[in-house]
From TrEMBL, chains A, B, C:
It comes from Labrys neptuniae. Residues 8-143 form the PPC domain. PROSITE patterns: PPC. Transmembrane segments: none annotated. Keywords: DNA-binding. The lineage of its organism: Bacteria, Pseudomonadati, Pseudomonadota, Alphaproteobacteria, Hyphomicrobiales. Coiled coil: none annotated. Pfam families: PCC. One of its GO terms (molecular function) is DNA binding. This is DNA-binding protein. Gene3D superfamilies: Hypothetical protein, similar to alpha- acetolactate decarboxylase, domain 2.
Length: 143, 143, 143
C-alpha cells in the first residue's frame, strides 16, 4: 500500500497532514530529524482517537495523566526544540467531545482518529535546547 | 455608507479584521477568490453573535449541530483549500460565554458580534485540494 | 543575578520565552517599544500563576472580571497594535486547571507561573491603530 505523503514545504517551514492511527509526537519528531529542524513553533487541529493530558504535580515531580477518546482537537499550540541531542516537543491543546465540552492542558500523547490532523510548523533558524531550570524543577527553553 | 476594508497584506499572507454582522466563512471564501489563495493556514479570535459547532456522526454521515450566541471566540484554527473548484474551509474553534465556560470543536458557521474578529492568514503557495477518503468516509486534505 | 534573555528574532518576527513571575502584557509592550513593532499577530502557551479573564458588559461599559490561579495556558491568540501612541494588546485565551477543565475568553492580565510561557510573534510591517467604533462602543483595529 502506498504511504501518503505527510508534509510539504511552506515559505516558513512545513505543513503536515497526519492520518488515522498516526502518533502525532512521533510524526513531529520524524520531521525534526529528517529535515534537521533547529526549532519551530506550530499550531494544529483535527480529530483524535485519543489524547492524554497531564497536569504537573510538583510535589511528586510527575504528571497526573488523563486519557480521553474520540475528540475534536480544537487547537494544539506548541514548539519543537532539542534536549540532549533528541527532539523535545512541548505542546498544549484544547479538545472537545461530542457535546462540545472541552478539556485542555499539557499534552502527553495523541493519536489521530477517523479523519485527519493538520499542523502548520513555522521554523526558527536558531537551534534551541530545553534544559532543567533547577530553581523551578521544570524544563525551560533556553534562548 | 463607506465599506470598511476587511484585510491587508502581510509578508506571509493577509491580516483580516471582520466586523459586526460579517459571515466569517463567506469573508474567507471571498478572500480566497479575490486573491487566488492556493492554500493557507489561519488563526483568529474575536467576538461572535453566534457560532454553530458540529460533531460528525459517522453512522448518519452528518454533523450534529449546536448553535450558541454571544461568545468570545478564544481561538479559531483552520486551513483554506479547494474542493471541486470551490473554496473549502476547515476550521475548529473554542468559544467562551459570559461565565468563561468554553465550548469547542468543528465550526459549521459563525457570525461576528458586537466587536470584531481578527484573522491572520498564512498562505501556502501550493494549491491544495480536499477529497473524500473512502476508507474513513471523511474529507482529507491531499498533499 | 543575570537576567535571562526574553526573546530572539525569527524570520517573521520574534520568539519569546517568559519566566516565572513575568507580567505577560508588560513583556509584550516592552517588546513593541524596544523593537518598534508596527503591528503583529501572536500565539502562545505555557503555565500561569494567575489569569484574569473579562467579559464585556455593554450596559455598564466595563469588563466583568474573574481571576483564576495555577493554570496551564492551552492557547493564547492575540494581536499587537497601537492606540494614542501607546501599545494596545488584544488577547484571548483558553486555560485549564488540574482537572483539565477549561476557562476561556478575553484576557485582562496574566502572570507566568512555575514554568514558562512561550510566544511566537509574527510582525506585520504596517502600523495599525485601535480606535473606538462609536456604533458599537468597542475598540476595533483600523485597517
Amino acid at each position: 500500500m502506498l504511504e501518503h505523503r505527510r508534509y510539504i514545504q511552506t515559505p516558513d517551514g512545513y505543513f503536515m497532514v497526519l492520518r488515522q492511527g498516526d502518533d502525532v509526537f512521533a510524526r513531529l519528531e520524524a520531521l525534526m530529524k529528517e529535515e534537521a529542524v533547529p526549532a519551530a513553533g506550530f499550531v494544529g487541529f483535527g480529530f483524535l482517537r485519543q489524547a492524554t493530558f497531564g497536569f504537573f504535580d510538583f510535589d511528586n515531580k510527575a504528571y497526573r495523566p488523563k486519557t480521553i477518546e474520540n475528540l475534536e482537537l480544537a487547537n494544539m499550540t506548541g514548539t519543537l526544540a532539542w534536549k540532549d541531542g533528541e527532539p523535545a516537543i512541548h505542546a498544549h491543546g484544547v479538545a472537545a467531545d461530542s457535546t462540545f465540552q472541552t478539556f485542555g492542558g499539557h499534552l502527553l500523547a495523541l493519536e489521530v482518529g477517523r479523519g485527519s490532523l493538520e499542523i502548520h510548523v513555522s521554523v526558527f533558524p536558531t537551534r534551541l535546547e530545553r534544559a532543567l531550570d533547577p530553581s523551578i524543577g521544570a524544563n525551560v527553553l533556553q534562548l
